[in-house]
Amino acid sequence: MSGLPLASVPDPVLELRNVSFMRSGKVLLDHGNLMLTQQGRTIIIGPNGAGKSLLMRLAHGLLEPSSGTIVCRHNGSGTPRQAMVFQRPVLLRRSSLANVTHALALRGVPRRIRRNQAEQALARFGLTHLAQRPARILSGGEQQRLALARAWALEPDILFLDEPSSALDPAATKAVEDAVNVFFRKGTKIVMTTHDLGQARRLADEVVFMCCGRILERTPAATFFDTPTTVAAAAFLRGELVLAPWESPTPLTTNG
Amino acid sequence: MNSHDPFTLALSLILSGDPGLFGIIQLSLQVSLSAVLVASLIGLPLGAAIALFRFPGRGLVITLLNALMGLPPVVAGLLVYLSLSRAGPLGQFGLLFTPTAMVIAQTLLVLPIIAALTRQAIEDLWEEYREQLQSMGSGRVRAIPTLLWDARITLTTAVLAGFGRASAEVGAVLIVGGNIEGVTRVMTTAIALETSKGDLPLALALGLVLLALVAAVNAVAYLLGQASRRHMQ
Amino acid sequence: MRCFRRLPSIAALILLVAATSAQVTADTTFITLASTTSTDQSGLFRHLTPKFTERTGIEVRVVAVGTGQAFAIGRRGDADALLVHHRAGEDEFVAAGYGTERRDVMYNDFVLVGPRSDPAGVTGTQSIQDALARIAESESAFASRGDDSGTHRKELQLWAMADIAPAGRWYRQLGSGMGPTLNTAAAMDAYVLTDRGTWLSFGNRQNLIIVFEGDESLFNPYGSIPLNPERFEWVKADLAQQWHEWLVGEEGQAAIAEYHIDGEPLFFPMNTGAPSRVE
Fold it and tell me: What is the mean pLDDT of residues C68-81?
């Protein structure tokens, strides 16, 4: 665990203030507050239905919050560039190379340098030999690597990953984790959900724990896995089923 | 022309290289392909736009578009006739009884097919692509060309369906073209004419030639589709 | 985004290309003639118009429709001249100011065709009224055009002259042109009134033969009407007038007279007397 000092950087890159999200009368995210800094790999964990994917989509701007504000800042002023890798890669019905150049075109990269940049991105993730292959006949692992290469080409300041390896075998999972670290070493902020605790341990610098539509804690990884702040997180780490407060008499937040 | 075997007759018609027949074939292709081209240029982006945008009356527009797929050619012809007639709103262009009028009438017939089928195909694809494209900063308008290209195989079928309708219809071109020999006579109006003259074998032979023609266009499209299929799943 | 702002202009460009491709042929001087399917299908125009074009350089584009529709095209000013066969309608058309004048061009005659077995016993009757009466009495199948064409109008006039209001299952209104009506009549062994020209060039006769002909009331005159440029400023009045005059002049009349199918003349110029079989 290459943990970084977290509290020492005061400048947030992404901040959620009192963000709630409702859909057909149900509160799916309840007054979430979260401050993420540029450094480190933030791993969001929690039981199914906790709102992990929802939180990422709100932060990435794919969904509008029902209330509250989301602030993105980069180096104090500019808007950070973002990219997202989904659980199931969505690839266009084109060649691998064209998938990357299309993303560059959307970003406004001039046509004459797109190809070069795209090829570099493919090479970075060992996909050069598949450049002309139709993207949608690649294997699941190759597809996810291509999605990562596409994100890489976009040179994001923040990379969101929504359970990027949950459908992959161990080898492909390793490739994804390696790729995540490639981004990390380049200084990209990593925000990733996973339901694989082992993966969380391998990658996390800090952990955001969610349950039942609430952000329960944000804790440095070293501390979290040994002494989580909340009862729910402790139960989750023990492998117990964590029930919503209205389903269980146990309080979520006070550590007993 | 008194051979009673339409197949032999069709073959001998083609082999004879009759300039009249080739003029008719050429005009048929020119009119129907132009109509399909114009209808595609309007219908593909229009169908995609309807798929992607939510606006009041959208359901009505979709229902109308689907209903117009069944617009009787005679009605389309009549509408175009009344518009292009000298006494009509577009009369000053003098387009009635010209191939242009036929292109306009067939465009009217083909447009709903292409737009409606495009709407369906793009809506399905958008469902799949929406988050990824949004994530990459693509707005809905910018997504239209991306989606149209990625749905190209389905859309080829839509365009071919439009071509099939255009090349098969007789009601519209008869009214707005007038079936003038050497000017606006196309395969279907020639077939109708020979039928009414009681030369049924010749009519059927012409029908076989038309069928072969449409099959050839579809074959070309199929081969292009196969070539393009290499770039998708 | 850029390519979508360009779309309307691309569409306009393509329409323009299509239009100019149409104009390639439009460069030649031409008039549009609204005429009847019977005249066109007899092959007369293919014989007649090249001679006129050779003489004047004016191409004649024939839109062949029913007489009723030809009048409708004329009333909207969508042709330059008419060549039709319904005398009363023609006079009315000119009187209403749609056309400049109406001149006799040619005539042929109507014939009654029916199945060879002649179930109504029409053969040998003395008049068309008689013939129609026998069909009505025996309720033998009769196929009517039912399309407000010149032939249909003629047929209704003949029933009226015979004091018969045709109705019933045996009287079938088809609402089709002459050719389709003949096809249907041949298929169901029905009697049908047709102009001789269409009958002579009709290829799908099956059991049908001429069962009655030669009555004076079966006379079928064709009239030429140029459209009135005072009413329709766009009509090519000069060219239409040249056509009109050529048609009724010596050369046009000779050309009409020399048109034969299988040795039989189809139309008779107005100046050379009655057709041999109508006396």
Answer: 94
